[in-house]
Amino acid sequence: MKISLKWLSEFIDDSQSLKLLQKESKAIQEKLPFLGLELGSVTTQGQGLEKVVVAEILELEKHPQADKLNVCRVNDGSSNELQIVCGAPNARKGMKVALAPVGAVLPGDFSIKPAKIRGVESFGMLCSGKELGLSDESNGILDLDSNFKVGAKFVDEYQLNDEIWDIELTPDRADCLSHLGISREVARLLERPYKLPEFEDLSSSLKDVPLFNVEVQAEKECPIYGAVLLEGAKSVETPGWMKSRLDSLGIRTHNALVDITNYTLFEFGHPLHAFDADKVAGSKLIIRFAKKNETLVTLDEEKRTLTEEDLIIADSEKPLALAGVMGGLDSSVTSQTTRVLLESAYFEPELIRKMAARHKLHSDSSHRFERGVDPDNIMRAAGRACRLFKEITGARRRGAMIEVCAKSAAELREKNILNFDLRAFHKLVGIEAKAEEISRIFNKLGLETQVKSPNVLRVVVPNYRIDLLREVDLIEEASRLIGYDKIPEIYPVQRTQTFSQTQGLQSKLAALRERILDTGLCEMMPYCFVSDKVKAKLPHHAFVELENPLSQEWKYLRPNLSFGLIDVLKNHVAMSQNDVEVFDIGHTFSTVKKSNERDSGVEEAFHFAWAQMGHSYPSHWSSDKKSSDRKHLKDYFDARGIFDKLQNDLSALEGRWASAQFLSLESFQSNEAWSKVLEAEGSWIPTSLLHPTRSAIIVWPGKPPGQIVGWIGEMHPNEKSDWLNMATGLNLGVVLGEIRFSKNIAAEMALYRQGKAPKLPQPYGKISVAGRTPVVERDIALVFGPQVLSQDIELTLTKTIGPLLKKIQCLDLYPMADGKKSLAYRLFLQDDQATLEDKTIQAHVKSGIDALVSKFGAELRS
Amino acid sequence: MSNLESLLASLQKLEQDSQNEFQNLASITDLEAFRVSWLGKKGQLTMTLKEMGKLTPEERPKAGQEGNRIRQGLESKIAEIEKTFSNKELQNKIEAERIDVTLKGRERVSRKEHPVRTTYDELLRIFSKCGFECEIGPEVEHEFFNFDALNMPASHPARALQDTFYIKGSPDVVLRTHTSPVQIRTMLSQKPPIRMVAPGRVYRADYDATHSPMFHQIEGLFIDTDVQMGHLKGILSVMVKEFFKTELKVRLRPSFFPFTEPSAEIDIACPFCKGETQNPPCKTCKGTSWIEIGGCGMVDPEVFKAVEIDPHKYSGFAFGMGIERMTMLKYGVNDLRNYYEGDQNFISQFARWKP
Questions:
Q1: Averaged over A409-417, what is the pLDDT?
Q2: Sheet holding A733-742, edge to edge
Q3: Reduced 3-state DSSP string for A356-379
Q4: Which of A333, A620, A627, B246 could join A257 in a cystine, given CB atoms 3.0 to 4.6 angstroms apart?
Q5: Mutation for testing the B interface, residue in A467, A489, A623, A744 having most B CBs under 10 Å
Q6: Pairs across A and B, CB distance < 8 A
Q7: CB contact at 8 A, A753 and A813
Q8: Residues with Cβ < 8 Å from A35, sequence gap 6 or more?
Q9: What is the pLDDT at residue A344?
Q10: For chain B, what is the mean pLDDT?
């Protein structure tokens, strides 16, 4: 809400109110926040124009070198005449102008210096409105009033001395959405009464036959509707003082009739609407709900299709206005209008909010009606407008206001007598106060009080404070006026022992994140929104679409985390940072059926994902020059390394991660049944983005193919340039992985809240004693058929050799000419109890080899 | 000349010769050759001493003593030279191994955690020290949890202020605009006393340097039979002191939230200028000395009604803060977009400040 200090002064009952306000402005500004009125900004008009003076052009002649320039001799009120070169077409002899002398700095940091323009010296500038920051465009220099005093300060003569306060109001303070409302608060600070502007009394019972009727068909939604007819409006310009005031608040001016209703709105905070009476068919205004598919072109020239929930003002034929929100274009007043039908009414806040939202139409009118207007202003605001109509346009009122009231203004207030209990105040806020003190405070607010007992006050709330409905509202008023700084600061003693219901889940997720951070991946937080391009990549995913996305790029909630990370990689490629390792952790979204009426119908899973790009090993001067390590690009095994590290940790959080297995993406894509499973369970997996022979799906074992829990893979060579915007020829390894840690996080939260959370495995169940026995390494090398998978070989070894086998490392993979492959493994054996004897080692290793030979037909390499 | 004399004479010559030869030894290889040629099985000393067989038993000890003396002399001399040589060799090796100690080491990976998450964890740690338990909730919420139960019925203008993202096809489902729905979920499933914080991601349809459509909040709720606004002040000032590791004044400024009454904005003394006048004015607080970090208040009786807690029996306070805001104030990074647009180098700077 913008407030003009000059305008505000008219509401303060003091003969020197403007001077008083100007003097106290700073002090008031500092106090406003503690009345619950946040001051956004203060603009002083004419700032930066202090040096600009009124001057007169004494003489002007054409510039000898330039047709469009004039050389002026200017009187700035001092004894010296100035020579100024000016290019304005409207410059003329005897004109009073705004002169920015040498040394002035105009808005936009434009400093005026002596200049030589095409060989002619110039000392200062004659200014246009635009150059002074007064208007957005200019048609030459300002042509000032000939009565202005030469040499006087421009801001004084032009009366650019107003101060504009931009007050950021919270939604409860509907009473402050006007100059009148703010004046009540400011008057209290100045300890002066406030006063209303002059208005006509519309209730006087003149004996005119009403020329119009009003019929209200929706009494609940429109409990009071008033209309008054004015005739004989002359087509006049909006007077300058009104125009400049509306201008200063940033309100666009139209014609006198519209401007008067707007002006009244900002005075009283009560929206009015003016119909052109000659454009209203019949002699009756009907307030009714629209019929389905009725249309109305509103003032903003939008054709709107109405619904049966839209309250409208109609004549006998058609809708005229969207009640409380915006008028219709056809029935609006114009500069030709002579007969005005002025509306002043009360509409239900909830109705207006819904209508404004439905039509995405937020007007100064709807803004006030949806917060609630003071019913006492219905008559006053209309009366004020009538007075201004008469003064400015000469329009005369035909009779009293026709008022249709289902409820009286007083009845619209549900409850305005409240009790205030000092004990309750003390208990909630911690301030001890006496009844007299509270009484004094409330009286200043315009609340009447009566001490009922030493601890209880009876409080009568005025109609404009529609936000004060309960005792607790009064407690807030009392505490903010006493000052929140008077509330004692007490550290609460811990009397209560609560336990968190979702703590277990929260700490599980936090632990997971800690483990990921250990890998050295860099944590990222890309936005959770994705585009149609992403959607096209996951045709089987039930995307969650936003009703009101910020942009087309951000239409859907993310189905997975990978696309966000791909964006991160792309940003790095753009910055030529090619070695990148990042991760993200958080919720992903899919649409599901609602399970109950308060269910969101959106399933949130908890994922973590990572992306790696660039080289596998950091370059170091000491590394072997011949080694391929130096140039080795990131591949599947970099991503796999991350997972292998995490798998161990994950299984500590949830036992079944220990049994996670890898199935090649190919194996899914070449199997019809399996690819169906992938589409359904892994709809979030961007398979078409992955290298088909160098990617894996991670599953928990079960009915084949098992339960899909994640994937890792290299990015498909064809997709890199598109998604990462990689320059052709730039060869970078890009690998990604993503794990679904929890399929339905909300369901899991619910389990925790119900105390049915799954038990975590005993964290310290199997810890072997610090090793006093040596670890033995044995290498084995065998030749296998091309189809045999390393995962199965390792599983067989683990099972056969048993607990003595602590670790297996694949040392070498060597393809043979016949298609077979030679694999070498290093086995790490250790007995926790005793040093292993050679024959025990031999026997165990042999049992492993025998198992491989019999199970896979492997041949031992000599 | 007797056999003895001639043997002693050749031993003497031999000693003399060997002494002379020592001068010519230049390396450990030379030394080894020397050792073999004098002391080896077929070495000169060994061969010479073989002639002792020709001596009489009486003569032998004398020659033997002399032979041993020479042998020991040679051996100790060899050991001495060997030591010199190996010292020299070691010296050479060390000399050859000299490095430029200013070259960088082999890279190790370090933690690279997001500063917003660092703040998130830090605030959780502080509140947990104050006895608050952590609760979490979903990010997509039914309006009931996000608005209705928080005393923001459909008609409430405060709803319009929140720039809410709605889900297409479900007009009553929103991306949560604050972490307050977790309060509702907690109060619905747990009876007072309650002392909880709820951190998490929230969404608003607004995007510029100071507004992100996605950000994080932490919410606190404390309900018991006689909780008062002074307790709220107490907790907030402990939190601020712990978080900024310095004493910063906390100020409550009147405001309005539908779910609290009385309501206040939380201001803290500007951590950058500490409220001292600066010229030009402090950029962070714009010379006001105060910075807003969140909102708070006493739980509105309407909220208690919605979750079936008796407002006559219980009272409570609630507060909410922007985690990004706190992060900005701690590290001085003011453009929010830095946190989301993803630059590895930007994030890598923060881990070192982790408390």
A1: 74
A2: A522-523, A580-591, A602-614, A733-742, A707-715, A690-700, A661-664
A3: HHHCCCCCHHHHHHCCCCCCCHHH
A4: A333
A5: A489
A6: 267
A7: no
A8: A185, A189, A480, A481, B254
A9: 95
A10: 89
CA A359, A363, A365, A371 dihedral sign is positive
b/e code A534-556 from CB counts within 10 Å (16+ = b): bbebbeebebbebeebbeeebbb
Lowest mean pLDDT among A329-338, A716-725, B192-201: A716-725
Asked if the Cβ–Cβ distance from A35 to B254 is below 8 Å, we say yes
Question: Alpha-carbon torsion B134, B140, B144, B149, what sign?
Answer: positive
Q: Which of B107, B110, B340 comes nearest A526 by C-beta?
A: B340
Does the beta carbon of A172 lie under 8 angstroms from any beta carbon of chain B? yes
Q: Are strands B260-269 and B250-257 parallel, antiparallel or unpaired?
A: antiparallel
- pTM (two decimals): 0.81
| Residue among A430, A498, A586 whose CB faces B193 most closely | A498
Query: Minimal CA–CA distance to A311: which of A269, A352, A360?
Result: A352
The pLDDT assigned to A458 comes to 94
Tokens of A830: 């250790």
Distance of alpha carbon A265 from the chain centroid: 29
Give per-residue pLDDT as tens, B140-184. Answer: 999 999 999 999 987 777 776 678 999 999 989 999 999 999 999
Contacts of A134 (CB under 8 A, 6+ apart): A142, A160
Kindly report, residue by residue over A772-782, the tens digit of the pLDDT.
889 999 999 99
B229: nearest CB among A428, A500, A621: A428
* CA dihedral sign of residues A642, A644, A645, A651: positive
**Whether A430 and B111 lie within 8 Å, measured CB to CB:** no
Residues of B in contact with A557 (CB under 8 A): 140, 175
Q: Do B186 and A587 touch (CB under 8 A)?
A: no
Between these two residues, B46 and A629, which has the higher pLDDT value? B46
Asked if the model's pLDDT at residue A207 lies above 70, the reply is no
Of A470, A479, A498, the CB nearest to B195: A498
Q: Is B106 buried (19+), middle (13-18) or exposed (0-12) by CB count in 10 A?
A: exposed
Q: Omega into A686 within 30° of 0, i.e. cis?
A: no
The helix/strand/coil state of A517 is: helix
Among chain B residues, the shortest Cα distance to A584 is held by B114
How far does Cα B288 stand from its chain's mean position?
A: 35
- Does the CB of A475 have a partner CB in chain B at under 8 Å? yes
Q: What is the spatial distance between Cα A67 and Cα A178, in angstroms, rounded to a whole number?
A: 52
Are B295 and B263 in contact by the 8 Å Cβ rule? The answer is yes
ipTM of this complex prediction, to 2 decimal places: 0.84
Count of residues in chain B: 355
Nearest alpha carbon to residue B322 among B266, B255, B284:
B266
Full 3-state SS string of chain B: CCHHHHHHHHHHHHHHHHHHHHCCCCCHHHHHHHHHHHHCCCCHHHHHHHHHHHCCCCCHHHHHHHHHHHHHHHHHHHHHHHHHHHHHHHHHHHHHCCCCCCCCCCCCCCCECCHHHHHHHHHHHHHHHCCCEECCCCCEEEHHHHCHHHCCCCCCHHHHHCCCCEECCEEEEEECCCCHHHHHHHHHHCCCCEEEEEEEEEECCCCECCECCEEEEEEEEEEECCCCHHHHHHHHHHHHHHHHCCCCCEEEEEEEECCEEEEEEEEEECCCCCCCCCCCCCCCCCCCCEEEEEEEEEECHHHHHHCCCCCCCCEEEEEEEEHHHHHHHHHCCCCCHHHHCCCHHHHHCCHHHCC
pLDDT band at A598 (very low <50, low <70, confident <90, very high): very high
User: Is pLDDT at A764 greater than 70 in this prediction?
Assistant: no
- What mean pLDDT do residues A395-411 have? 82
